[in-house]
Amino acid sequence: MVILGGVIARAGALLALAHPVWALVSQRTTSVSSSFPAAGNASYDYVVVGGGTAGLVIAARLAASGASVSVVEAGGFYETDFTNLTTVPGYAFSDPVLAPVEFFPPIPAVDWELLSEAQPGANGRKVHYAAGKTLGGSSAINTMCYHRATKSTYQRWADAVGNPSYSWNALLPYFLKSSRLTPPNWPKRNTPNATFSYDPTVFCSSPSAAACGPLQVSYANWVDPTNTWFSVALAAIGVVKNTIGFNSGFLSGAAYTTETITPDAIRSSSESSYLARALAQTTLKVYNRTQASKILFSGTKATGVSVTTGSLTYVLSARKEVILSAGVFHSPQLLLLSGIGPQATLDSLSIPVVANLSGVGQNLQDPIFFSVQNGLQTPSLASELADPARQATILQQYVSTQSGPFSSAGGYIGFEKLPPAARAALSPRTASLLATLPADVPEVEYLAGSFAGTGGGVTTIGDLSAVVLNPFSRGSVTISSASIADKPVVDMGWLSDPADAEVALAAFKRLRQAWNATALSAVKVGPEVRPGAAVQSDADILSFIRANAIQIWHASATNAMGKSAAAGAVVDWRAKVFGVNRLRVVDASVLPFAMPGHPQATIYALAEKIADCILADA
Ligand SMILES: Cc1cc2nc3c(=O)[nH]c(=O)nc-3n(C[C@H](O)[C@H](O)[C@H](O)COP(=O)(O)OP(=O)(O)OC[C@H]3O[C@@H](n4cnc5c(N)ncnc54)[C@H](O)[C@@H]3O)c2cc1C
Ligand SMILES: *[C@@H]1O[C@H](CO)[C@@H](O)[C@H](O)[C@H]1NC(C)=O
Ligand SMILES: *[C@@H]1O[C@H](CO)[C@@H](O)[C@H](O)[C@H]1NC(C)=O
Ligand SMILES: *[C@@H]1O[C@H](CO)[C@@H](O)[C@H](O)[C@H]1NC(C)=O
Ligand SMILES: *[C@@H]1O[C@H](CO)[C@@H](O)[C@H](O)[C@H]1NC(C)=O
Ligand SMILES: *[C@@H]1O[C@H](CO)[C@@H](O)[C@H](O)[C@H]1NC(C)=O
Ligand SMILES: *[C@@H]1O[C@H](CO)[C@@H](O)[C@H](O)[C@H]1NC(C)=O
User: Fold this and answer.
1) Parallel, antiparallel, or unpaired for β 301-309 and 290-298?
2) Span of the secretion signal (predicted)?
3) What is the DSSP letter of 553?
4) Distance (Å, rounded) from C-alpha 582 to C-alpha 406?
């Protein structure tokens, strides 16, 4: 992960518009100006709140059915509002929007600028938690890793909501419908020691491109040489490169991951894929730079949304349904502001109660990660980007052949259940909590990353991270006033459950074992950089983790899907909010629990599935 220090400072220099992608976007939007209505009361069949990852899938599919649809999005077009930091894959990890620190560079053009509550389990730190405020939402600022969860994860989901339509077999059509895969470009990758095999049958194979989903999924057109050494290191501890990849319902071993990147090496977001197609082919109306402040009800029937563009406040009425897709923090915020949530919270802020739903904003699950670093003599994505002598060459490579470091967002990852020796140190309570997870659900993810080197033969600071995938800690989202002007109050609950600390400690030791691989001595330089040899005891390692762990931006489950409101669920298996009518929530907030690994593939598929549900119910 290249997210701190000098990288952020350097990013300040990248301000002007330079990539041809801007020309593309202005073509896309000016040719369809009727898609952007003027502010003022209007009625639609469906009003979608939030033009992010899930929201644009829903809006595009409903509009394609011939229904009248509008989508309300607080942000604009990231390609024109921000810099090529959002569009060029090589910048994905150096975008200053990621900064997970209390004092972060404000980036109002694409970010909500949320600052968390102090985390007692993490030395009382408050962190900036990036969340996309732009068309595309977090798919426009994420780090582009695309993969699916395991077969048993989806079965567990089906069991949790009491409906078989969440099984792997039932969801697979929606994974296919949302995406299209471009096979690896081996000549551009040009790295014989980094070949792999994968399973093409779990992607859309229709010869007609229009039949496949619009989201572009591909493998980077460049292999980071340092990642080939992380492949060796992980294999040495048993996390061996697999032959199938991470899209077939299995998460075990290591692999070069698929990424949401177009074949010509530009970020593929829900905006550049789904929205671009909908603007060209449907009558979808987009209210950009427009913030929803409240869902309006007649009794318990949702009738529309109160929105504000500039200084104008007006109502978008929904003849059929309102679909809330404002994301894991803002969907619970909007429900609460609209009178749906724990009665005590609503009463304390004098918000009239529409539905007393105790689960709104509860149950937040946020995986954390941390790393061990060593000096390496190998070049890497970070060292290439930081080397002035390489700039002209790598820019030329990107512009003329869409390859080289700028075309890559990293992408070597691995998954495992902790092996027996590591499990032996777990307390009985932690062992029994982990035993509640299905056999194919990994407990830890490993991520290969890098920072630029420090000279003296150190070309790269290799950064091997571990993610605690299934947090038992719980956080929450709530509100501090009855006004949309106040940001949601976000508490991730990091390391509040001791089981997470035990898994983190075990995972940290696995990182050191991987770094200790004999083969790595060929490229390692000097003693361990971080945390350094002085950190040895369990207590010292845990202090390091509490002081340094950060989010991987995969928070979920703040409006969990489930069987009943009494059990803490907020929506049913059709994503309908309990206790009211004509209102659904579709985004990361309705995941019933944290997906193992990176969630975006699942969120795209979920949105496709619920779009089908909505049309079937219409
Ligand atoms: C920095 C970062 C890196 C990540 N890396 C990865 C990765 O590599 N792989 C992966 O799988 N996942 C990754 N994720 C997670 C993944 O991107 C998110 O889980 C997913 O995009 C969330 O989708 P969503 O639809 O729930 O919300 P979002 O995509 O965030 O959409 C919510 C939308 O609602 C809008 N909105 C909110 N409130 C209002 C309002 N009141 N009025 C109008 N509009 C509003 C927002 O502006 C936004 O556009 C990352 C996330 C982040 C932030
Ligand atoms: C991104 O934009 C900056 C500023 O205009 C420019 O210097 C840089 O070359 C661009 N990067 C790429 C990969 O196009
Ligand atoms: C929305 O985007 C369109 C296309 O870029 C632009 O013309 C319009 O001014 C934007 N609306 C607002 C309120 O900024
Ligand atoms: C817009 O709708 C709201 C609520 O339905 C109504 O109070 C208001 O008068 C309408 N505004 C105009 C300009 O029609
Ligand atoms: C793999 O090949 C690349 C490019 O030839 C080289 O830089 C790297 O060191 C090799 N990695 C290993 C583990 O041998
Ligand atoms: C609201 O729901 C909670 C939990 O279901 C319940 O304990 C509480 O009594 C309810 N409040 C009212 C006023 O009904
Ligand atoms: C590293 O390897 C050496 C030699 O095999 C071994 O003695 C040592 O315990 C290992 N250290 C770790 C942290 O795995």
Assistant:
1) antiparallel
2) 1-23
3) S
4) 45
Regarding predicted confidence, which is higher, 554 or 28?
554
The residue-averaged pLDDT of 485-490 equals 98
Q: Do residues 145 and 87 lie in contact, with contact meaning Cβ atoms separated by under 8 Å? A: no
36 lines ligand 3 (CB under 6 A): yes
pLDDT of amino acid 21? 56
Residues 583, 272: Cα–Cα separation, whole Å = 27
Token pair 């790269």 in the structure block, residue = 460
Q: Which atom of ligand 1 is nearest to the CA of 598?
A: 11
**Pairwise CA distance, residues 511 & 518, whole Å:** 14
pLDDT reading at 14 higher than 70: no
Does residue 12 carry a pLDDT above 50? no
For residues 367 and 550, is the Cβ–Cβ distance under 8 A? no
Nearest residue (CA) to ligand 3, atom 11: 288
User: What value does the mean pLDDT take over residues 545-557?
Assistant: 98
Cβ of 356 below 6 Å from ligand 7: no
DSSP string covering 431-474: HHHHTTS-TT--SEEEEEEEEEEEETTEEEEEEEEEEE-S----
- Residue 313 backbone dihedrals phi, psi, to 5 degrees: -110, 130
- Identify whether the C-beta of residue 228 lies closer than 8 Å to the C-beta of residue 194: yes
pLDDT of 494 strictly over 90: yes
Confirm if 467 and 480 have CB atoms less than 8 A apart. no
Ligand 5 centroid–CA 196 distance in Å is 15
Q: Whose CA is closest to atom 6 on ligand 5?
A: 225
- What was the pLDDT predicted at 33? 73
Distance in angstroms (rounded) separating the CA atoms of residues 209 and 181: 11
Residue type, 359: G
* Domain 5-617 in this protein, CATH class: alpha beta
Instruction: Give residue-wise pLDDT tens across range 215-260.
Output: 999 999 999 999 999 999 999 999 999 999 999 999 999 999 999 9
